[in-house]
Amino acid sequence: MVKVTGGGRRVGAVAAHLSYISQHGKLDLETDDGQHVFREGQKELLRSWHLELTRGQYRQPRGESVAAARVKLVHNVTLSMPAPTPPAAVLAAAKAFAREKFGAKHRYAMALHTHQRHPHVHLVVKAEGIDGRRLHIDKAMLREWRQDFARMMREQGIAANATPRSVRGQTKRAAKDVFYRTQRRGHSYALREKLDGIVRELRATTPITDPARARLLETRRAVVEGWNAVASKLEAQGEIVLGGHVRYFAMHLPPVLTDRERLAEQFIRFAKVQRSTRTREDDRLRDRTTERTR
After folding, report:
1. How far is CA 153 from CA 10, 35, 97, in A?
2. Contact 128, 74 (CB under 8 A)
3. Which CATH number, 1.10.10.10, 3.40.190.10, 2.60.120.20, 3.30.930.30, labels domain 2-155?
4. Which of 3, 68, 99, 259 has a beta carbon 3.0–4.6 Å from 55's, enabling a disulfide?
5. CA distances from 46 to 21, 101, 109 (A)
C-alpha cells in the first residue's frame, strides 16, 4: 500500500511529524543522501531543507490573502505491507522507491516502523524540488506509485500486486456516524448541503439521482468482463472448479452505489433508528401516564 497521509504547512508541524516517525528519537531517520539522523540532528536536518524559504516564495502583497499558510511544505507518505512480510524487505523496497521517485530531485527522510502487525515506512518528502518545481500528487500518480512499489516488493522476493479496489470488489464507504457528527458539529457545510439535497429528493418521493452512476456502471461492466475472461482462460486450461469460483466472485460483486446513493441509504437507516427510538419513548410515556391515572 502507498498512501499519502497529509503534509505539514508550517515548519513546526514538519518537525513534529519527523519526531513522531522517529518515535521521539528512539529511531534514526535515513535521508536522501544516505545519512542517519538521530534525535539531536533533526533540527539541523530541517534547517538544511530551508522550508521557510518555500513559504516566502508564495507570500502575497500586504492587504491580500496570505497563501503561504496554505502551501504544503512536505508530503507525508506511508509505504506498508501486511503481516508477515519481513520488515527488512519493506525497508529495502521503500529505499528503492524513494530513490527512483525523488532521488536528486526532492529532499526526503524515512523511518521503518515495526510496532504494529504490518511493517511500514514513513516517508517525508520536501514538496519543492531542488530545481524549484513543486511535487503535485494526484490519483493517477498514486496508482503508478502503488504499481511501482508492488514491483519493488516482488524484486525483494515478496508476492505483491497493486490491484484496483474495483477489481477486488471493494467500494468506497461513507464516513461512519456521518449524520451524528453533522448534527453535533456544524463544521462540514459541504456535507450538510449534500444531505439537504438528498432529504429534499426523498421527501418528494423521487429516486436519488447522481451523474456519476453511469461512470460506475461502465467500470463495473469492464471489471465483470475482465473476471469472466480470466475464468474462460482457466476453464480452457482445465481449471474448471477455479474458473467457476472466479465467475461466482464476478457475479456477486457488491452493488454499484455512488457516494450520494450511499449517503441516502445511510440517512434512511438513521431516520428509521430515530423513529424507532421516538416510538419507544412515546410508549414508555404512555405507560407512565396510564399508571398515574389508575
Report:
1. 33, 23, 10
2. no
3. 3.30.930.30
4. 68
5. 14, 21, 10
Task: Tell me which residue has cell 480452457.
Answer: 236
How do residues 256-289 score in pLDDT, each as one tens digit? 776 667 777 777 777 677 777 777 766 666 666 5
Contact 104, 50 (CB under 8 A): no
Q: How far is CA 237 from CA 28, 61, 185, in A?
A: 52, 69, 58
> Can you give the pLDDT at residue 178?
47
Say what the pTM is: 0.58
State how far the Cα of 32 lies from the Cα of 234, in Å rounded to an integer.
Answer: 45
**Can you name the residues that pair with 109 across neighbouring β-strands?**
31, 124
pLDDT of residue 122: 95
Alpha-carbon gap, residue 127 to 158, rounded angstroms = 30
Q: For 188, list phi and psi in degrees, rounded to 5.
A: -90, 85
Give residue limits of the domains in the chain.
Answer: 2-155, 178-292
Q: Is the model's pLDDT at 171 over the cut of 70?
A: no
What is the average per-residue pLDDT within 186-194?
55
Mean pLDDT of 197-214: 65
Of the candidates 72, 20, 15, 80, the one whose C-alpha atom is nearest the C-alpha of residue 44 is: 15
